[in-house]
Amino acid sequence: MRGRPQALLVAVLGSASLLFSWVSAAAIALVTLRRGAAEGAFVLLWALLPAAVIAWSLGDGSYLALLGGTAALAMVLRVTVSLATAILASVGVALLAGGLMLALGEQYLALVSERVVEPYMVLREEALAAAGNPMELPRPGSAAIAGLMGSGVAVMSLLCLMLGRYWQAALYNPGGFGAEFRALRYPLAVSAGLVVALLVLSGQGMTWSIWAMVAVVPLTFAGLGLVHARARLRGWSRGAMWLFYGAWLLVPMQLVMVGLAVADSALDLRRRWEPGESGQ
Questions:
Q1: Between the N and C ends of the chain, which has fewer C-beta atoms within 10 Å?
Q2: Structure pTM?
Q3: Where are the domains of the chain?
Q4: Residue 78: closest CA among 39, 107, 118
Q5: Which class for 278: exposed (0-12), middle (13-18), buried (19 or more C-beta within 10 A)?
Q6: What is the DSSP secondary structure assignment for residue 132, as one 8-state letter?
């Protein structure tokens, strides 16, 4: 925020590193949120140069997708001033990123399948055999891997957006981001639409069930926002939150978050909690 040269330095150096591209994406989000689309686009274009070199040399366009996805979500947030809308827009980011990888990244998807997916599936088969239940697991195809990576780009873009928004709030409106996140909630029609998409895609075989993860992302973040609201209301300790996020890594807890988001859309749980808590 001191000036364009400092913003360019952070964005370009971050995008040139495989480990710190998320810093570059978050910096682009901060510039876009604070100074507008034109300034954000200027920083983005410079940051795309080293990311393009990485994409050309390694065949991995995920860093380009991360920078572009984060910038797009930041623009949505700046225009709508709605964190919920920006998170919902991640569905479009996931679909576009996954679609581009499927259309343009055939060799890279094959490489991911060979070096990442296949060893993982072999490990799972060995674990099943050791447990006395040997079987050959079906391998996901390129379309399924593209859907998984598209969802991953959407999640990472959202996390970078939130980091940029957190930085903005820390500089100009302390506590503002936390209040926005704890208030995150979708209308019932939106949550119901996402659930219908999830159920329909999940019933269409392995490939489409992986693409169904796209619909889970907004509901998951809404569920997490609800948990944070409850934690603040009840005064949960930081240790309790760490335990919660440890449990959240398990698939059943992730499904609980989706259920909580839908229940909140229907019942407005925060409004129901507050009178009871204030009466204690």
A1: C
A2: 0.89
A3: 1-182, 184-280
A4: 39
A5: exposed
A6: T
